[in-house]
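Cont'd.
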Amino acid sequence: MASAAGSRGFINNVLETVGRRTSSVFVEIGAVLIFLGQTLRWTVSPPFYWKSALKQMEMIGVDSVPVVLTTALSTGMVLALQSYTGFKRFGAETLIGTVVSLSMTRELGPVLTGLMVAGRAGASMAAELGTMRVTEQIDALSTLATNPMKYLVVPRFVASTVMMFFLTVLGMITGIAGGYFVGVKVLGTNPVTYIDNSINYTEVKDIWYGLIKALVFGAVIGLIGCYKGFNTEGGAEGVGKATTGAVVVSCMLILILDYFISALLW
Amino acid sequence: MIEVIDVHKSFGELQVLRGVNLSVEKGESMTVIGGSGSGKSVLLKHIIGLLFPDKGRVIVDGQSLNDLDEYGLNELRKKFGMLFQMAALFDSLTVWENVGFSLKQHTNLSDKEIRKIATEKLALVGLKDVEDKMPAELSGGMKKRVGLARAICMDAAIILYDEPTTGLDPIAADAINDLIVDLRKKLGVTSVTITHDMHSAYKISDRIAMLYKGEILEIGTPDQIRNTMNPIVHQFITGSAVGPITAE
């Protein structure tokens, strides 16, 4: 009897915990969507803080160039090397260029750039805004009759979206160049065939698909980084949690959205 | 000038304000005292529209904050200046950029003119040759002074002080008290201060209100508060551990 009551209590506790957590996830999703709505609303209403946006573009975009270059170059080179090993087994090593080009434009360019930028710039946004929140600098902005969404969030959101586009272009070119170097210079594939196969089987729409992903991922990084920072609570520990949360959520959203955008643009 | 009418505020299960009523006249210096967690900061944030009541109203210059849209609220906020507990200076801006922030946002003045005004306001709070320093290079007392210069930069009619002497040594704290009194004499501003520093409260206030468990328990002049018969207020102002208020 006591054992039955005990197991009922345990099941109730488990259900309650699952219910509470599920509910809090939906509340969080709702809060992010409201935050997105506010961000879009303030993005299209003047004044626009150009100077601040340009500064953010430098921090998010220009400062991310080394990490994006390294990642893309390494990925392109490894991709060529691994494809060669597989393709050689059935005599298709001339298709390395096609594989590298398609992978870098449609998939790896935007996704890897997104993950790198989320780790670097997304974390930085969350930490900076989180610190401003816990030290009351965001409240101070409001008391100075300045809308913190417009002043802090919009420039970061716009900069992140725009710079992800250009960083992804850079990532695509660098990855393809890395693949060419390994395929032609290291593995000895015919350069003309390599380039021909790369161009013939890669369409303009493949590049656009990748760039559409880049824009979406950029918006996600800006949105989540700012949302987490803006809603930081509880001092230094809160800033740490916001920073980690921004990176984890951005990366997960990038990977989840990657599938859905790929399926949509198939 | 400021009327707080039956303001209630809760955060989740926690009820912080339970029907606060407070009236501050033009040119008056009102200080709200109370223990940590009594709702003082929450009350101050309601007065400047950083928080809105669940029930009740805050009226400033005849305008109810609840009824204002974003634009109206920002226009009203231009009448305010606020000194935050830890000054809340913008880390990425220099001292003069912090002080002149409102002027940069809301006027067409050139940077040169803004810097000149910022320098004047800094002189008014007793600071010179700090214009190009970053906030991280300043002491706690200097940060508060810069915060005060920022609060008065747009010639605010109402200044809100959030624990102005907290975290300062006694001499720096008294210097801030003198500055608050001095600024009021020079500028004729209305001020609302929240503090639990009784030395400061007696020195800067026309009236003192005690906030306890989300309600105003007593309001009076500094002398009336000193001679209160209310055991809770008496215990708080004498700083005794023995009495109806228990340490949490």
